[in-house]
Amino acid sequence: MRAKMRLMGFRGAAIKPLNEEAAAELGAELLGEAIVFGVGGLCLYLEYARQAGQARRREDEQAAALRELRERLDRLREELDAMAALATPITSQDTPPADLTTPS
């Protein structure tokens, strides 16, 4: 890495060691920012989980309502079929005989 830096024309600069007070201040600032970042990330995760749970509950409710409507539709179809089966013999009995319908 040093050779590559020298080939590119960069020279290393001497870095002065930090005094104890500056190091403690930078460490405290870094720790504070890490805590804020962690709390922010946790809030984002909790909000995502909350919204995902709400969406899942909403989908479950819609699926249950749809299932209930389908069951009701099936029951109504069965009732309609039963009524149609009962109505067919009645309508065939109500028709007058063929010889009475022709005018004389």
Question: Would you give an account of this structure?
Answer:
Pfam families: OPA3. Keywords: Coiled coil. This protein has a domain at 23-86. Helices cover 82% and strands 0% of the residues. The protein has helices at 2-7, 20-94, 98-101. The mean pLDDT is 87.
Spell out the blueprint of helices and strands.
Layout: H1 2-7, H2 20-94, H3 98-101
Coiled coil: 52-86
InterPro entries: OPA3-like
Protein name: OPA3 protein
In short:
This protein is an all-alpha fold and 104 residues long. The protein has helices at residues 2-7, 20-94, 98-101.
Report the helical percentage: over 70%
Strand segment count: 0
Tell the overall outline: rod-shaped
Structural class: mainly alpha
Low-confidence stretches: none
Distance between the termini: 120 Å
Radius of gyration: 42 Å
Mean pLDDT: 87
Strand content: under 5%
Q: Enumerate how many helices there are, as a single number.
A: 3
Give the SSE string: HHH
> How would you characterize the largest beta sheet?
none
InterPro entries: OPA3-like
Function: May play some role in mitochondrial processes.
Keywords: Coiled coil
GO cellular component, one term: mitochondrion
